[in-house]
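Sharing a chain and its predicted structure for anyone who wants a worked example. Both blocks are below, sequence first, tokens second.
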Amino acid sequence: MAVMSTASPPAATAPQPLRVLVVEDDGPSRRTLAEALRGEGCRVLEAEDGVAGLKIAASEPLDLVVLDLVLPRLDGEHMLARLRAGNDVPVIVVSAKRREEDRVTALDLGADDYLVKPFSVRELVARARAVMRRRTPTPDVLAIGDVTIDFGSKTARRGDEKVVLTAKEFDLLVHLARCRGRLVSREELDRVIHPGSGEAVEDVSNVVDVLVLRLRRKLGRDIIATRRGQGYIIDC
């Protein structure tokens, strides 16, 4: 006789919090940043100099290092160079240094991104997510409900039907799909539509709205949700 199991199906695994090391010598600044990151759901470790930062990075599994450049005992550039000798953890440099040479040096040493102080924690978290997405292999094909996106051929299908998209429609869809589960601001989408512009193009938000409307007509109204005054998100 067959026996029916009464056990409940396993619960979905919740996403693990980002494990972030903040290396900053200024105590109040470090604590403020650490608390703000914890408020974003991150697990945060702190170090006040480069030597302590290297010790933590060698002993703790990390998802991200937020690194100031001006540090006692071992400055940020030397810490970054030593870190990169045997650790590929993503690093975002945060510094008051604004010169192009400082940014270029940090990136050449292996930094994944560079933020000039002052900055918002929301921007830091968004950049952290972007860094980790860039380091995560992108699948050739991504399915969202009945919509399938083929990155290689730059095509989309809804069910069994191929959907004709313009280049900008496809670029916008791909960016939202890769940011799946994260709210994407109009300003960020502006830069997708007009790469290299550096600044938001005048009235470009209207263009974003039009492209989203077209995507909804072609792929279904539920694929892209609006957060009024904030931006768009694919959360299905």
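Comments welcome. The chain has eight helices and twelve strands.
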